[in-house]
Every structure is written in structure tokens, then in C-alpha cells.
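Dear colleagues,

As part of the handover before I leave the project, I'm documenting each prediction I ran so the next person doesn't have to rerun anything. This entry is a single chain, and its sequence is reproduced below.
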Amino acid sequence: MAEKAVGLVVRTTDWSETSRIATIWTRELGKVRVLAKGGRRLKSNFESALDLLTLCSIVLLRKSSGTLDLLTEAQVVRRFPQLRRQLPAYYAATYVAELLGEGTEDYDPHPALFDEALRTLEALGTAEVQPGPCLARFEMVFWRELGYGLVLEKCAACEVPVSGQKLAFSASHGGVLCGNCQAGQRQARSLSTGAWQTLRDLSAAADDGRKMEGGEIRLLLNDYVTYWWGRRPRLLPYLGIKA
């Protein structure tokens, strides 16, 4: 049975001389991995809809578990040309694609995450938006939607409410640690009051994407994704901050 969806192309791989495999993150179905037969031909049914970071409408035939679905139609809905005019914005956008393509399960839809991804791609590359804060806001939504939202209002270890004084961030605990629980936590990073407040604003979608406490939050989020994935994402070195 054919299924229709609107999705963002987050990864493509050549399959043969004429065909291509694409990973598409859709609003209706979540992540789908499809085989586009003839997708590499200059004149195909998919035109250029399978270019990375293209929003497209698709029709697919779902196959049995463990095999690729068959893509039968793909048409461009929207592109984000401003991303390619600013390298930091493009790297941030491709990191969004990496998170969606490699950090989620097949057929696990999260409409709110899809909407936030589009909002992020629309904002990145515009004059008034800095890539770092904009990307950080997306990451907060990403983790919350997947059930790994950061614990920010109380200590992630002892659950005592925190006030922003003498805090640390622990990736393994999934949030902030109070002063009493920081002892012996070698992997924890100190957390300034300003960064703690910004994380709270980002988590509540109250941040406007224009400010951030230097590279502090970027380092914390790098720690978090690396801990949960068990490896560093490929795009982290291109986001401007090194641990």
C-alpha cells in the first residue's frame, strides 16, 4: 500500500549506477530509508528532490522489516538556499540532519521535532540569527522529544531543587548537579548561572536564538550527545567549539 508523507532529506548514498538510497525524516512517519530506483539518472521521476536538506513530498511502498522501502515519487516542496551562503549555518544544518538521521529510530514520528527542524533550517543563515543558539534550541527539543530531556530545575542526582549557584553539568546524569553531588564527578563541567538560565530558556522555547553564553553551552551539548551515542558525531568538529 502506498503511503504519502512530507519529509526532509537527511542522508543519501549511491546504490548502483542508476539508483540511490535516501534517508528521509518525515512528519507523518518519522525516519524512513528508501530505495530510489533510477534516482541517479539526470532525468528521473525524482528530479533533484533527493538533494541533502531538501524538503520534499514523497510516496513510498513500505516493505517488510529490515529491508528498504521503495520510493515511487518525490517532489521538491522547499529548499533552503541561504544555508549555502554561510558556512557556519550550513554546518549547523548538516548537524541537524546527522542528529535526525542517526539519532532516531525508523518509523518513530515526532511531529514537534519535525516542525522544530524546519524552523531551525528556516532561521539558520538569516542575518539576525546566530547558528550556535539556534542549533542549541533544536537540540533541546531533540532530546526532549526522544525522552532524554535535560534535568535543569533540580539536581539530577539527589533531586533537590537548584538555584543556579555552584552548579555543574553531568552528561551521564542527564542534567545539573548541586554542589553536594559534584564530588567525585570527574566528567562534570562547571556551569555558570548565565548558561544555566539560557539552558532553561532554550528548554522552554523562550530563547530567541540570538544569544548564548559563549561556547559553554556548546561544550555541554557536545558532552551530552557523545555520552548517549557512545561516540562523537561527525559534524561536531565543524561547529566551532572544541572540547
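The first strand starts at residue 2 and ends at 14. The chain has a mean pLDDT of 89.

All the best with the project,
I.
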